[in-house]
Amino acid sequence: MIKKYVYFPLSAGLFASIVTVLFSFAYESATAIEGEQLDSLREAIPMSHLIIAPIVGCLLASAGYFLAKRVMPRIGPFLFYFLFAGISIFTCFGIFTVYGLHEEIIYTIYGYAMPMHFFPFLSWVTFKTLFFPDQK
After folding, report:
1. Cα separation, 21 vs 92, whole angstroms
2. Where does residue 130 rank: exposed (0-12), middle (13-18), buried (19+ CB within 10 A)?
3. Using one digit for the tens of pLDDT, what is the confidence trace for 16-74?
4. Residue 55 to residues 8, 119, 131, Cα–Cα distance (Å)
5. C-alpha span between 26 and 49 (Å, rounded)
6. DSSP class per residue in 6-71
7. 32 in the Ramachandran plot: left (φ > 0), alpha (ψ -120 to 50) or beta?
8. Quick one: CA torsion of 4, 6, 7, 8, rounded to 10 degrees?
9. pTM of the model
């Protein structure tokens, strides 16, 4: 049973990391970010952050969910989902504080990074139904 609680957030986080990296490559290719611009982007948002952040996010989310469910069985899951979605939305605004980018990609960073903030949430919710099909 404990394996379920470890494998679930790790698999959701790994999936979110893969999607994040694939999205970054697709976005860079579609918007022709290369050379100095790509170096500037990688310096502002390193690839290691794109891999580690979703895994850590899913691990923390799982701990928060099961704690909320244990402390408040009736309303805990709702509060968790509400907070997780709210945090995903709120962290998008952190993109506006990224400085030091090449001047030609200053405005493309928003389309690049904002969707990535929702990948851990979507992955976590999707994988939860796989590991815990009987829970709401």
Report:
1. 17
2. exposed
3. 999 999 999 999 999 888 888 888 888 888 999 999 999 999 999 999 999 999 999 99
4. 11, 11, 17
5. 17
6. HHHHHHHHHHHHHHHHHHHHHHHHHTT--THHHHHHHHHS-HHHHHHHHHHHHHHHHHHHHHHHHH
7. left
8. 80
9. 0.89
HSE, CB side, 13 Å, CA atoms: give it for residue 23. Answer: 18
CB-based burial, 12-30: b 16+ in 10 Å, e otherwise: bbbbbbebbeebbeebbee
- The rounded distance, in Å, linking the Cα atoms of 21 and 100 is 22
